[in-house]
Each structure stands twice: as structure tokens, then as C-alpha cells.
Amino acid sequence: MSWVLFQGTKRGRSPLLISFTMATIASGGLGVWFLRSLSPTPIALSEPMPLPNAVQLERPLPRRILDGRDPLLATVPKTAPQPPMAASTHAKAMLPPVALQPVPPSQGPAPQVRVAIARDQSQLIVGTAVATTVTNDQQQVITHLAPSQGVVVTAREGMLLWNGQPLAPSLWLRPSNQLTFVGDKWYRGIVRLIAQGNAITAVNQVDLEEYLVSVVGSEVYPDWPMETLKAQAIAARSYALAHMFQPASRFFDLGNDERWQVYRGIETEWNTTQAAVQATRGIVLTKSGRIMISMYAATDDIVREVFGGRGMSQTGAYELGKRGYNYLQILGAYYPGAGLSQIRTQ
Which of 61, 60, 58, 73 shows the shortest CA–CA distance to 317? Predict the structure, then answer.
């Protein structure tokens, strides 16, 4: 009896509703029916749609060998074509850099980062690689997902609709160490869907180190020098962690586009970006005892124009990597006065 009262209070039922529950329990079987009717029941999927196959992590690298002159990634602002850059463009990167002091990679578990992978969407197709239960914020099972079968999710007046069936304001997809499909991409970790009026926000909660494997592959080419990839991994880790301490929203820490740092799920995971992240696991840039918001952009010109010269040029880091500089020297060239620290999760 006390358990029923505790559950009722925890779920926020009114005193009147709790009293009614107690009265019906005392009267017999009707009370049992009433309690069951309050619990969400699984809803069968309708009109399932097959999802695209997930890409394997250990795929071969692209055959094209880059020379640093190719257009760079989503971090480059979409502007009119510019004339060829003068030789002095990478002057900062060509100066003999002062190497940062090394720290060993972390051996402990990584924190979880919350990334908004879709915002203000009228509808999303979602699915999982394995059979998965879908829960609400109280971790009650609402429905189930069949393996690799897509479902259309929409929102109406703060409520999520699952193939047209209203379910809850917020839903969680928690496949057991498997992949989740949202929109047009596969992601690791778990996904939360949130109704905000008539729009949907999807948040990917994922291991920080797994997230970085994709970010590095989204921000720079995977066949760039390994030391450049390591420098990019540390800069991206520092940027993400700084936003985890100062999140963009109560629902997520940062977004997934060039406004933040680009994250495309498993489609930009490569064996080289995985190696760079593992080699620098848990290492971040710090300054004056605080994690540095390590800004970076495609070229020195953009760093000067947008960040006042404070940040890393990705093409400059590429040139330094080609010249044989290690990641400590690359970071030292672009983040003067910074140090390296190791994060540990309690």
C-alpha cells in the first residue's frame, strides 16, 4: 500500500487522484484495472520502412591524396571564391613552434556529451539497428522498435506522435551498445526526441571520445598527417568540454553544425580519426587553470577575421604536419600560453 502512495506522489498525481486510487483498491478488482490503465502500454509499429545500412568503422581511407589546396569542410564560411592566397597566409604556422608539455592519455571512462543533431524539425524518421524499447522521461516503456525499421515521428502542441499516434512530450531510444538512425544518419549512443510546440529536437547523448572520432573526420580530411589529426582531436575535445560546462540549452550542450563543430555520426568515422582520438584520449587544452574554448577555422585568414587571430588554422596545421611537426608543436604554434591537462571522470 505504501509503495502505491510513493509511486503516486513521485509521478505528480494530485491528492484527489491518489485518494481515488486508494478507494478503488479497497473496493476490489476495479482498483487493479485503474492502476494498469495509468501505465503506458506498448504500441505496435505501423507501416515500417527499411533503414539504410550502417557504415562500418574500419572502412578503407579514400584513395585521393590531398595536397592542402582542396576546399575545406563545413568549417569554411560560404563566401564568394577568393583569389589565391599569398605565401604569407600561413606565416604563423611556418614559425618554429614552441611545443606544449605532453601528458599521458586518460585510461578512465569518458563523460557523455549531449549533441543536438536535429532542431526545429516538423518530422523525423528514426530507427535502431537492433530491437529497442522506447521509453519516456520516467523510463517507462512506451513502445518498441523493430530492427532496422523506420518510424515517422512528428510533433503537435508539445506532444510527440509516433506514426500519427500521440505518445509523450519526450521519448528515449536506448539501443544496447548499437546504432540509432535519425533523419538521414546513423549515430552511436542514445537519442532523446523532444517535442517543442509543433517541432522536434533530437539530442544524441554519446561518449565524448566516440563523438570526437566523427568530429575529427568531419572537420579535416582523414588522410591528413596523423599529428595534425591529433591536434584537431585535442582542439575539438577542449571545445566540446568547455560547452559541457556551459551548455547551450537545458536539453543539449552544443549543436552539430559549423556554428559549433561539425558532427555527422558514423559516416565520418575513419580508422585514422579513431587512432588520433585514442592516442590523445582525455587530453584538453587549458589556460590559467581553465579549459580553453579552443577556436579553430579552415585558414589563418579566417582565424584572424573571425577570432582576432586567436585559434588554430586547419590548413596551417596540415602544413606543419607535412613538415614533420608533432601535435605538441602544432598546438603550441596556435595556442600560445596554453597547457595540456588530462580529464578524469569521477
Answer: 73
